[in-house]
Write a structure and sequence with these properties.
alpha+beta, 6-stranded mixed β-sheet, 3 helices, 6 strands, globular
């Protein structure tokens, strides 16, 4: 692990977050491996590869820029693989004027491909109520 790798991955994360905030599907995909595997909060259970039309369709459900930030990051590197766990905030105004926002758990895995760090996997989750009907808990705060 080198300081340069650590800095490169942090820069990649900043670029990815900026692209999410500005709803730039092409830039989001530029940060990701062509073979990315994603476990998102929204269905389906998993996705592989980059589907720009679907990503842009989801981004277009928001009015104006997105709020997206991560905190409490733990970045670990080993060779050509790295991962980062964090708490993430996603918020904004949905089309139709409804303001939404919540914290969730985020894990991002990175792989060095052709000398460049890319996001190879994302995993998003929220805790769910263990008693009664299992419902996602979107009102938790860090």
């Amino acid at each position: 692990m080198s300081t340069g790798d650590h800095d490169d991955i942090k820069a990649l994360l900043r670029d990815w977050m900026a692209a999410l905030r500005t709803k730039d599907a092409a830039e989001i995909i530029r940060c990701q491996s062509a073979t990315i595997r994603q476990f998102s909060l929204a269905p389906p259970l998993q996705e592989t590869g980059n589907d720009k039309p679907s990503l842009q369709a989801w981004l277009d459900t928001w009015d104006g820029p997105l709020e997206f930030d991560i905190r409490d990051t733990d970045l670990r590197l080993g060779g050509d693989i790295a991962w980062c766990s964090a708490l993430a905030w996603l918020g904004g105004i949905k089309k139709g004027g409804q303001k939404n926002g919540f914290w969730f758990r985020l894990t991002v895995a990175f792989a060095r491909e052709d000398g460049r760090w890319l996001i190879a996997h994302t995993h998003e989750s929220v805790p769910f109520a263990m008693e009664g009907q299992p419902l996602g808990l979107f009102d938790l705060q860090p």
